[in-house]
Amino acid sequence: MIKKILLGNEAIVQGALEAGVNFVSAYPGTPSSEIGNVFSKIAKENGVYFEFSTNEKVALEAAIGASFSGLKSLVAMKSFGVNVCLDSLIPLLYTGVVGPMVIIVADDPSCWSSAQSEENSRAFAYLAHIPILEPADPQEAKDFTKFAFKLSEKFKLPVIVKTTTRVAHQRMPVVIDPKVNTGTQKTGEFIKNPHQFVTMPPRVLEMKKELLEKIEKIRDFAEKSPLNKVSGVRNTAKVGIITSGVSYLHTLEALKELNLHIPVLKLGFFYPLPKKIIQPFIKKLNRVLVVEELEGYLEKEITALAKDINPKLQIFGKNLLSPIGELNANKITFALAKILGRKYQIPEVKEIIPKRYPNPCLGCPHLLTFSILKKLTSKNIIFGGDIGCYMLAGMPQFNLQDYLFSMGSSVGIGHGIMKATKKQKVIALMGDSTFFHAGISALINTVFNKSSPLIIVLDNRTTAMTGHQTNPGIGKTGMGEDTAILKPEEIAVACGVKNIKVIDPVNIKEYESTIKEFLNKKEVSLIVARRICALLIKKQKNG
């Protein structure tokens, strides 16, 4: 064993390699993006198949196919990706897996990169009945990933390892095994078994019963797991803390700040919850602080347990720690001081750096689109925002984004607005990767239902926002192999769009005249503004 300084996401890759992963699929989404980036570089030499899938749903489905063929698979995505793949995720829990499968889900408390909402992926545990593990640091990210493969193999269910931005982008020395599998890709075999793989009534209800039975077996297994641990000592004040994930590290800092030595129960298993570990921990306490980011799921579970075990227990959680935004040591120190009757004031941070709105990179081709739209359009135009670099169109210096929801929604919502208002025109902005991810079905809907938005596909020849990953329009797979180049303009023709033009945005006069022409059309129009990302040019020059 040796030590190596790794990012949390790099540690997940290492854990998967040490577990003998065979098949990896991902859609790039910060804060999970580095997982796919690393695998794209090292997959071949390690005998692993890797792909950047067109979206998270097909990434999961590809991994399901690999698992059903007996391979060890890993899928990586950001929190919103779970929303996209849910249609296939829930039935997967009913069928179970053949080869073990681990799903990495990266949440983003405080919305550092995931602007649409502050989603808490732990909620999916209750909906899908899927085991969820929560590492606190890169070492645990590696170890929990390996453990998740073993758990999946033992109980024949997929397992989620849920990280956050502070886990995914944290660095530390990680103990690794340098001897990982290398060589050729393993070949699987799909063995027909409709009894297992076909979710149809009445069998599907039997499957649910089997799933719930598995969850209870995993709960018993979790009770003895080293992923859950108690640190600290019993104290005369009879105060304790229960926490999970990166909140544990913030908790340790808070205890150091107050010079406190009290018991802390760290739960590596979020679901199914190891109740037999929690019950004796809270039995002799007077007060317990539940430290968790965002919604108080642990707090609700512990409150329910305490009614029978320790009904007089005072439970503190979201009454002292906000369900909005990341936690930090100061917030937890304040909460502990409040419980113990100590004086503590959160230090004020004086902002000495003037606030600046984020801007596109120097030379970004999207800036040309923004400036042309600002010049040409009236107040009656509705601008549909979407997920990508061009989200910056919503910043005050541009003010070109009237709504923003999810991948592909600029077109879907724009269609609804035009049908509802019958007179207001919508310009929907969408990137090339987003077009392939979720834009095509929305485009078909606008054509089918006789809508007439102007769709501008900002094609900068890469998936730029998350780190220049490939997509179906590039001609390279995630492993660097040559493949077919899919063009949004050709797909639009197949979808029935008649008004289509491909423009280099530096041709400003042509761009302006085309926008003016297409805004007057009574049917769907599509412009592909194609110019390579400025940073990608620099990257390619530097090799």
* CATH fold-type name of the largest domain: Rossmann fold
What is the subunit organization of this protein? single chain
Q: How many whole angstroms does the radius of gyration measure? A: 25 Å
- How many domains in all? 3
Q: Please report the total strand number as a whole number.
A: 19
The CATH H-level superfamily of the largest domain is Thiamin diphosphate (ThDP)-binding fold, Pyr/PP domains
Helix content: 40-55%
- In round numbers, the mean pLDDT is 94
Q: In the CATH hierarchy, what is the class of the largest domain?
A: Alpha Beta
**Spatial order of the strands in the main sheet?**
3-2-4-5-7-6-12
| Low-pLDDT ranges | none
Distance between the termini: 33 Å
Coarse shape: globular
Structural class: alpha/beta
Give the biggest beta sheet. Answer: 7 strands, mixed
Helices, by number, come to 19
What is the second-level CATH architecture of the largest domain? 3-Layer(aba) Sandwich
Q: Could you tell me the strand content as a percent range?
A: 15-25%
Describe the structure concisely for a colleague.
Helices cover 40% and strands 17% of the residues. It is of the alpha/beta class.
Question: Can you walk through the features of this model?
Answer:
There is one protein chain. With 543 residues, the protein is an alpha/beta fold. It has three domains: 2-223, Rossmann fold, CATH 3.40.50.970; 229-340, Rossmann fold, CATH 3.40.50; 366-541, Thiamin diphosphate (ThDP)-binding fold, Pyr/PP domains (Rossmann fold, 3-Layer(aba) Sandwich), CATH 3.40.50. It is globular and about 75 Å long. The two termini are 33 Å apart. Helix 2 links the parallel strand 2 and strand 3 (49-52). The chain has helices spanning 8-18, 33-42, 56-68, 79-95, 123-128, 138-155, 165-168, 194-197, 203-223, 247-258, 275-283, 297-309, 329-340, 366-376, 409-421, 432-448, 488-494, 508-519, 534-541; strands at 2-7, 23-26, 49-52, 73-78, 101-107, 132-133, 159-164, 171-176, 229-231, 239-244, 264-267, 269-271, 287-291, 314-316, 382-384, 426-431, 454-459, 499-503, 525-530. The strands form four sheets. Strands 3-2-4-5-7-6-12 form a seven-stranded mixed sheet, sandwiched between helices. A five-stranded mixed sheet has the order 9-11-10-13-14, with helices on both faces.
